[in-house]
C-alpha cells in the first residue's frame, strides 16, 4: 500500500463525495493510499453511506468542537487533508477551524478546493467569493510556521465555475428551449466539469515527493477552468449541438436568475449568492480567460469540452430533472 491516509471534508456534498469516490474506485489512485476518511455533518446521508460501502471510514464532523476535530484527525492517522468548503453559510468559519485543527493534528499535506475568481471579487459586492481568499490565507500561513511541519506541503486548487450549475436551467431548456443566464452579452467564461476538478484533486492527493505532495504539485496555486470560453449564445450553441435540439440563450436580470434558483434548486441560500456573484464577475469581464495548463500538467489529459459536458448530462435536459445540490 502507498502509506498515505487521506481525510476529505464535506463528503455529503457533490465535490467531496466525487473526489472520495474517484479515489476509492479508480485503480490508478486506489493503490496509492492506505485509507480514506470522510468527514461529514450527516453520517446517515446517502453519500456517506455509499462511501462507507466503498471502503471509506465516515466520521461525524461537528463544527465548533475544535478539540474533537483535532482528536478525530489524530485518531485516524490522517497525514493528508482535502479541505472542501461545505455548501453552508458558515463555510468560512468551518474551514478556518479545520485548517487550525489540521495544524494541531500535525497534518503535513493540505489540498484546498478554492474558487477561481475569488481574487477578483470585491468584499462588499461579492462577499461569498471573497471569503475564499481568507480560507486560502489560513491554509497557506502554516507554510511559514517553522515550529511545526504541519501544513508545509500545501496545494490550492482554484476551480472555475462548475458546469453542473447549468443543470439548474435544464427545466427551462426542456420546456422553453432557453438557457436563462444573467451574464450579459459582452463577456465570456469557461465552465469546468466537476469531474475534471476531482481528477486534479485525486492526482494531487495521491502524488508523493520528498516533503509530502509531489514536488510538481507542492506549493502550487492551480487554477482550473474549462477549455472553452463561452458567451451565453456560444454555450447554448454547444448545448444544441450536443443534444440535437435548438436552445437559445436569454440574458436575464439577476432578480430573474434568483427566481429560477429559488424555484428549481434546494441548494443553500449562501450557494445561490455565490452563483449570482460569479455571474456578476462574468458581466464585469473578470472571467475572460482559460486556465487549463494545470489540468494538462497534472493529469496529462484534456479537460471536458462544453459539448462533451452536455452529452454527459443529456438525460437531465431531456427528462424532467430532480432538484439537486450542485456545489459543496
Automatic annotation (TrEMBL):
NmrA-like domain segment(s): 13-273
UniProtKB keywords: NADP
Gene Ontology cellular-component terms listed: nucleus
Keyword tRNA processing: no
SUPFAM superfamilies: NAD(P)-binding Rossmann-fold domains
PANTHER family in alphabetical order: NITROGEN METABOLITE REPRESSION PROTEIN NMRA FAMILY MEMBER, NMRA-LIKE DOMAIN-CONTAINING PROTEIN
Name of the protein: NmrA-like domain-containing protein
Organism: Microdochium bolleyi
Lineage: Eukaryota, Fungi, Dikarya, Ascomycota, Pezizomycotina
Amino acid at each position: 500500500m502507498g502509506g498515505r491516509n487521506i481525510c476529505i471534508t464535506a463528503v455529503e456534498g457533490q465535490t467531496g463525495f466525487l473526489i472520495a469516490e474517484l479515489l476509492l474506485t479508480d485503480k490508478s489512485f486506489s493503490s496509492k493510499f492506505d485509507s480514506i476518511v470522510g468527514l461529514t455533518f450527516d453520517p446517515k446521508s446517502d453519500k456517506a453511506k455509499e462511501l462507507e460501502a466503498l471502503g471509506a471510514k465516515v466520521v461525524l464532523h461537528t463544527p465548533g468542537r475544535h478539540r474533537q476535530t483535532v482528536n478525530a484527525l489524530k485518531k485516524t492517522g490522517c497525514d493528508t487533508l482535502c479541505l472542501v468548503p461545505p455548501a453552508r453559510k458558515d463555510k468560512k468559519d468551518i474551514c478556518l477551524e479545520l485548517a487550525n485543527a489540521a495544524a494541531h493534528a500535525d497534518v503535513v499535506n493540505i489540498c484546498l478546493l478554492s474558487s477561481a475568481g475569488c481574487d477578483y471579487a470585491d468584499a462588499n459586492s461579492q462577499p461569498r467569493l471573497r471569503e475564499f481568499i481568507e480560507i486560502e490565507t489560513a491554509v497557506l500561513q502554516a507554510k511559514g510556521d517553522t515550529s511545526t511541519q504541519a501544513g508545509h506541503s500545501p496545494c490550492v486548487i482554484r476551480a472555475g465555475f462548475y458546469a453542473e450549475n447549468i443543470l439548474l436551467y435544464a427545466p427551462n431548456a426542456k420546456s422553453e428551449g432557453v438557457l436563462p443566464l444573467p451574464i450579459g452579452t459582452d463577456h465570456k467564461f469557461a465552465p469546468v466539469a466537476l469531474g475534471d476538478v476531482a481528477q486534479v484533486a485525486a492526482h494531487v492527493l495521491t502524488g508523493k515527493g520528498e516533503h509530502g505532495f509531489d514536488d510538481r504539485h507542492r506549493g502550487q496555486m492551480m487554477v482550473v477552468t474549462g477549455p472553452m470560453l463561452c458567451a451565453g449564445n456560444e454555450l447554448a450553441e454547444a448545448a444544441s449541438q450536443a443534444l440535437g435540439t435548438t436552445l437559445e440563450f436569454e440574458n436575464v436580470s439577476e432578480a430573474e436568475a434568483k427566481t429560477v434558483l429559488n424555484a428549481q434548486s434546494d441548494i443553500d441560500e449562501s450557494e445561490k449568492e455565490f452563483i449570482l456573484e460569479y455571474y456578476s464577475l462574468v458581466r464585469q469581464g473578470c472571467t475572460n480567460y482559460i486556465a487549463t495548463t494545470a489540468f494538462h500538467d497534472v493529469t496529462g489529459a484534456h479537460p471536458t469540452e462544453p459539448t462533451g459536458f452536455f452529452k454527459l448530462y443529456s438525460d437531465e435536459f431531456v427528462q424532467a430533472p430532480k432538484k439537486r445540490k450542485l456545489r459543496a
